[in-house]
Design goal:
The complex is a heterodimer of chains A (115) and B (113). Chain A has 115 residues and is mostly beta strands. Chain A is built from no helices and 11 strands.
Chain lengths: 115, 113
């Protein structure tokens, strides 16, 4: 299994540009989520999904959109990039039940810079 | 709302010193508890987890944590740290049932050789 994969690894945008961060998992996990990591603030939940067709907002959803058309994919869209969105973005997935509980598996991250 | 608080932002230790990182959470119901580690330039990896049973859980690389329900705490310990333990450590809590995982702010650990 590849686990959780993210593309791209690095991205530089200009203010106002839009882009999509890709996330895919091959573990058939129901739950997927996006976090942003900023110094001194830990990981903050942006959006999450408990299954295909179901998404919900996390702590810091403004400026981001998500969709979940398949179990495997959970892309994160930046509608109009702002410098405040400069961050490292992590995608994660987990089962909602079973022996592993809610242990989340993380992707390698996308480092985004908005100029 | 759930929240997680890690008391120490930056801890500096010498090799062979003992480590204890504090973690407190606020949620009155059943929780699952996790410690993740992030080595420089890498993504998060699970150190250990608590779901139920023995409140003293052992993880990888000699780490352990104790869940004290009455104190809403889940502190991470290691008897003797190594230089290779230099990393950032995150405590996380998930309220059961459900999938949302809430992270603490992280503690940066620097181990001097």
């Amino acid at each position: 299994n590849a686990g959780v994969t993210q593309t791209p690894k690095f991205q530089v945008l200009k203010t106002g540009q839009s882009m999509t961060l890709q996330c895919a998992q091959d573990m058939n996990h129901e739950y997927m989520s996006w976090y942003r990591q900023d110094p001194g603030m830990g990981l903050r939940l942006i959006h999450y999904s408990v299954g295909a067709g179901i998404t919900d907002q996390g702590e810091v959803p403004n400026g981001y959109n998500v969709s979940r058309s398949t179990t495997e994919d959970f892309p994160l869209r930046l509608l109009s990039a702002a410098p405040s969105q400069t961050s490292v973005y992590f995608c994660a997935s987990n089962q909602l039940s079973g022996s592993s509980g809610n242990e989340q598996f993380f992707g390698p991250g996308t480092r985004l810079t908005v100029l | 709302a759930q929240s997680v608080s890690q008391h120490n932002h930056h801890v500096i230790l010498s090799e062979a010193a003992s480590l204890e990182l504090g973690c407190n959470y606020s949620y009155g119901g059943t929780v699952n508890l996790f410690w993740y580690v992030q080595y420089p330039g890498q993504h998060l990896q699970l150190l250990l987890k608590y779901f139920s049973g023995d409140p003293l859980v052992k993880g990888i690389k000699g780490f352990e944590a104790e869940f004290i329900k009455s104190k809403f705490s889940f502190n991470l310990r290691k008897p003797s740290v190594q230089w290779s333990d230099t990393a950032e450590y995150f405590c996380a809590v998930n309220a059961w049932p459900g999938g949302k995982l809430i992270f603490g702010q992280g503690t940066e650990l620097s181990v001097k050789p």
